[in-house]
Design goal:
14 helices; alpha/beta; 4-stranded parallel beta sheet; binds zinc ion; 346 residues
Length: 346
């Protein structure tokens, strides 16, 4: 009798567990096709316009500095096995390697968003701290007098070594600003480009219409909020806001340059402090994923304040929840910029 009961119980348990498994496997209907994206702004963009057959997987987890991020083996597999891989180029340094690892028949469709819009070119002043080297090289190129033949040869070798070292630390030959999403009009262009490239099987044109209309509204509200300001410059921790500055007419001074992993030298910090004092700038804008140490130091020196601005390249989950993703964080940016630039008459 006992044996019989235990067999019945065993069968029952099997039935229950298979029912649970079955229902889990079918949660939300049929399994969705997968689009992987490298970083948060690409996640928001793609997630806002795709149809219900697809789901988006964000590879660079929220809160981790995107300039410093490396995917795990499991994440690389996820990208390899996805249907589409959409990415902003130039922030991380791993995407090209992952794309070149694709092989076989069912390779993901690859969309490099950074190739789809006109990008902001970096001039020598912006690109980094090796200005002097570049100037030397240029000067040197102009001087081709026979008298200096031996010296030239020596300098050539020397310059070359410096150049190679420098490339390894500084996003290779990146000559444009990769923080494209901070101009809403560029995001609008990208939504339309994605629709054209991926087609109606993947992208819902109605969603594109709604999403792009929202971006136009955001752009208009930025333009009017920042139209009349007392200041024309802001100070930020790393150089992420070039597109905003270009679109809405302000200049950006930065502590750490285009790559947030670079640290300023004491000399550069001193020069910046001097400039801020001369120009009467006393608000330092720092991003949450970056250590505020340098910003605090400079704020102390100029008797200023440190406020938060969002580059949205890798926002914290708490910030996404509190402010509602890209649009909410851009609204926060608008407020903080309005204050830092002294735009009073809105
Ligand atoms: Zn950045």
């Amino acid at each position: 009798m006992l044996k019989k009961i235990s067999i019945v119980l065993g069968i029952l348990a099997l039935i229950i567990s298979s029912v649970i498994l079955f229902s889990q496997g079918n949660e939300g209907g049929e399994q969705k096709k997968k689009i992987t994206v490298n970083m948060y702004p690409a996640y928001e963009l793609v997630n806002s316009i795709i149809n219900d057959d697809y789901q988006v997987e964000l590879i660079n987890e929220p809160g981790l500095d995107a300039h410093d991020f490396e995917p795990t083996g499991k994440q690389i597999l996820e990208i390899q096995n996805s249907d589409v891989f959409v990415y902003f180029d130039g922030i991380g340094e791993w995407e090209d390697d992952v794309i070149s690892s694709f092989e076989g028949d069912n390779q993901p469709i690859v969309v490099n968003l950074s190739e789809k819009v006109d990008t902001l070119q970096l001039d020598e002043k912006d690109s980094n701290k090796h200005d002097d080297d570049h100037e030397d090289e240029e000067k040197h190129d102009d001087e081709h007098e026979d008298d200096h033949k031996d010296e030239d040869k020596h300098d050539d070798e020397h310059d070359h070594e410096d150049g190679d070292d420098h490339d390894e630390h500084d996003h290779g030959d990146l000559d444009y600003d990769p923080h494209i999403w901070l101009d809403p009009t560029k995001m609008r262009e990208l939504a339309i480009e994605l629709e054209n490239e991926l087609g109606e099987d993947i992208v819902d044109s109605k969603k594109v219409e709604e999403y792009t209309a929202k971006l136009v509204g955001l752009d208009n509200s930025f333009s009017s909020a920042l139209s009349q300001c007392n200041q024309s410059k802001i100070v930020t921790s790393h150089e992420a806001f070039g597109y905003m500055g270009a679109r809405y007419g302000f200049e950006i001074l930065t502590i750490q340059g285009i790559d947030s992993t670079q640290e300023p030298s004491p000399m550069e910090l001193a020069e910046l402090v001097e400039q801020l004092k001369t120009e009467g700038l006393n608000t330092i804008l720092v991003e949450t994923q970056i250590s505020p140490d340098f910003s605090n130091l400079i704020a102390d020196e100029v008797d200023g304040v440190v406020n938060i601005i969002y580059s949205i390249e890798s926002p914290q989950t708490s910030d996404i929840n509190e402010f509602g993703g890209y649009f909410g964080l851009m609204e926060e940016n608008k407020k903080v910029l309005t204050e830092a630039l002294g735009c009073g008459k809105i």
